[in-house]
Amino acid sequence: MKKAWIFLFIALVSLSTHAKIRKVVVNPAGGGNDFGAHSRLFVEKEISLRFAKKIQSLNKKNRIDTTLTRFEDYPVHANDRIALVNQETDAIWISVHFSKAFGPNQITLYTLGDIPSSSIESNYLIPIEKAHRPWISRSTLLADEIIQTLSPELDPKHITLSTPVESLYGINHPAVMIDCQLSDTALTPQGVENLIDDLAERISIATKTFIRKEKKL
After folding, report:
1. Distance in angstroms (rounded) separating the CA atoms of residues 43 and 41
2. I want to staple 150 with a disulfide (CB 3.0 to 4.6 A). Which of 86, 99, 156, 173 is the partner?
3. Strand, coil or helix: 78
């Protein structure tokens, strides 16, 4: 009987790892007293929220259930953001950030890889890393899908991190962090709005494609 319960537990874990994606959780950076990065063109907490809402609106048109970790300008602790997505059984996590580019506009996507367990500093993160490990390959697939949809002019890159970042660790779902690096010299305020409109549409398309591919697995 004990063995039967063990096999049932393993089966349930396997099913949860391969659950079909039905929901998107978008995490706009900052909020409240956390202004994030800023330049003459943007304040990160404001532009990330506008960007997240654009993605949500476009996903709604595609009948993709999408929620945000915050809907207005108020602080949300990182643990509360992670708890929000981890209460879902079939979601993906897209954390959106903005920073100032010191050259041309560029987009960098980050996913979390294996955290070296041999590192003393990271020993306390080993349980978190093990929980995320089943999702590493699917996070990579999500990042690659987004990159394929983005304009080559933005020189999109995908970086797999071996050290934890607050916007990724502890998430038991496919998870991607997007850093939009905007140039002060190459853009106008209207140019920024046009750019995030285009980015939101491309990310929504990539999300829809990723979910469709997941359903075929």
Report:
1. 7
2. 156
3. helix
Once rounded to an integer, what is the mean pLDDT over residues 80-105? 95
- 120 vs 182, which has greater pLDDT? 182
Distance of alpha carbon 111 from its chain centroid, rounded?
A: 8
Pairwise CA distance, residues 47 & 45, whole Å: 6
The verdict on domain 21-216 having CATH code 3.40.630.40 is yes
What are the boundaries of each domain within the chain? 21-216
CA atoms lying within 13 Å on the CB side of residue 8:
5
Please state the pTM of the whole predicted model.
0.86
CA of 70: how far to CAs of 102, 103, 188, in Å?
29, 31, 27
User: What distance lies between CA 186 and its chain's CA centroid?
Assistant: 26
Q: Which long-range contacts (CB under 8 A, 24 or more apart) does 80-83 make?
A: 81/27, 82/170, 82/171
Cβ atoms of 91 and 175 within 8 Å: the answer is no
